Structures are given as C-alpha cells and as structure tokens.
Amino acid sequence: MGWQEGYCGLAREADYAVSTAPTHYLPVKDFTVEEQTGRVVVGPWGTSVPEPRLASLIVRGQFQFEPQPDPFGLVLTGLLGVPRTTTVTSGVYQHVFEPRGDRPSYSLEGAVGDLAVRAVGAKFPSLTIAAPVGGFLQAMAEFVAREMRTVGMATASYAAEEAATWNNTTLTLSGTAEPLAVGVSVSIQAPLVPLEAYGSGRRIAALLPSGPIGPGVALTIFGQTSAWLSYAREETELSLRVLATGALVGGSSYSLTIDCPRLRAGSAMVLSQVRVHPVAVGQFSVFASPAAVRGVSVTLVNITAGY
After folding, report:
1. CB neighbour burial string for 42-51, b if at least 16 within 10 angstroms, e if fewer
2. Tell me, what DSSP letter sits at residue 83?
3. Is the pTM of this model over 0.90?
4. φ, ψ (nearest 5 deg) of residue 236
C-alpha cells in the first residue's frame, strides 16, 4: 500500500506496541506500508497433502519526507537512541545523536484521502539523508512494526517551521571544502531482528538490535581526477562533515551536522558521463572513531527541549 500525498504522524510509545495518537507530523512525499505473512507447511497425520498455515505477521514500510528540524529528532531518536541534549541559548537546544541501546518504539500513522493506517510498535532499521546542491534536505526512513491498524483520519498539525528551513548546505572532506562536490547522501543502517515468542498471538514480541550500526556515504564529484581514483587504490582515510543550516531561531540557527571522522573509498570509483559533464561517484565505508561512536555522529539544533 503506497501513497503519493498525505501526512505522516508519529508518536513515541510509553510501552512497546501500545497504540498512541500522533503528536508530531512530517510532510511526506511517499508513505508505503505492508503487512507480511509468514507461513509454515504442515502435513497432518493420515493425510498426504501438505497444508499451509499462518505462522506470523509483521509490518514493514518506508516513508520519504522533509526532515523539519524539530520533529526530525523523533526519527533520529528511534534510529540511534536518546541524544545528549544541552542548551545553546534560551529556548534553543543542541542534541547529539550517536548509536545507543535505548531505541524507543513509535506509532506511525500515514493517511491520504479517506484512509488512515497506523503501524504500532515501529522502530527504524535505516535512514538515508540526501543533501542536493542548492536544494532542501530529503530523508527516507524504513520501519518495522508489530501490527497495522486502520484508524480515523487525523487533522495534521505541522511544526511552526512548516516550510523547509534547510537552505544552505556545506561539505568538507578532511577539514577542507570540496568545491567540486555535486551530491552527497549518508545512509545509516541500524539492523533489527524480530523476536517471535509464545503467547504473542502470531505477532512479534519485540524488535531487538542485530549487529553493529553501520553508516555509508555516497559522494558525487564533478570531473574525474587521478586524486579521486587514488583514494580507492591507496585506501586513503578521509573525514566528512555535512552541515545544513536554516532559518534563524533565538539568536542561533537551525542546523543539522553529520560527522564521519573516518571513511575510505570502496573498491573503485565509478566514472560516468552526465550529458557532457564527467562525474566520479564514490561509495565510502565508515569506521569507528573516538569522536563518533560506530563512525557517525548527528547533531541537531532546534527549539525542542528534549527527546
């Protein structure tokens, strides 16, 4: 089930899979959710024909959205855990997100037309943030949930910064601006494994972390230089910072900073021709650093006191 327009509402659950009405809304470009069925085949005694039977149900989906500064912190909390929060100035706060174990669950609600569906007990196994040159940030989040319910339509109430505020993005590699960078996206994978247990009514009992959190970076450079080719050949270690700033707030500015202190290019740089313009596309692996646990640190400055 996929929708091209509508709202995405979300709320943090006090207890896992306890349905909660949305408290925040994000403008979405696409919201997709499906309920998947797991079946087992049994052969009852005295018969020769196997019989399929329902064994489990699980909900999976994704949504593409504009990461508004305040509600975006909910998604980051679901992905990475509760942040460290400090006060920048009166009414302005800085939240530092790094992979932690306390990843809460959410109720996610998507709607269009006359239909609204709520995914209950949802957690986020992945998030991709793209920062186009001269454009606004875009994000794509995947979620896994315990169950899906139809609900009444809500009246979406967006944050005060309804219009996208990310109007300036800079990128630095190893502390130096990269003037020929024409595209960057950062994907953070936080794997989850569903826990099936007796008495859970064919639904998952919990969603547990499964393996390390691993970010990856895709970077597009205008032109094809020997220096960029050598990054993959020599396994040159670089660092990356993506900084997006927005409207002024309380004497400061909304901002989103993604830091990857250690990364290396993959096995090869992909060279291609876009019309008459040559570009090099690099896929980078990110490694752990004392400055960013498991390789990535995300800092958000907004007017929300805490998550």
Report:
1. eeeeeeeeee
2. P
3. no
4. -65, 130
Q: How far apart are CA 64 and CA 251, in angstroms?
A: 31
Give the whole-angstrom CA distance, residue 149 versus residue 261. Answer: 42
* DSSP for 229-267, written as a single string: HHHHHTT-EEEEEEEEEEEEETTEEEEEEEEEEEEEE-S
Instruction: Select from 112, 195, 133, 153 the least CA-distant residue to 22.
Output: 153
Write the single-letter amino acid at 226: S
- pLDDT mean values, one per 10 residues, the chain (307 residues): 66 95 89 81 71 78 91 95 94 93 91 84 96 84 95 84 71 88 91 85 88 86 73 86 87 91 77 66 84 87 93
Q: What are phi and psi of 88, to 5 degrees?
A: -85, -50
Picking from 193, 207, 10, 212, the residue whose alpha carbon sits closest to that of residue 99 is 212
CA distance 114 to 111: 8
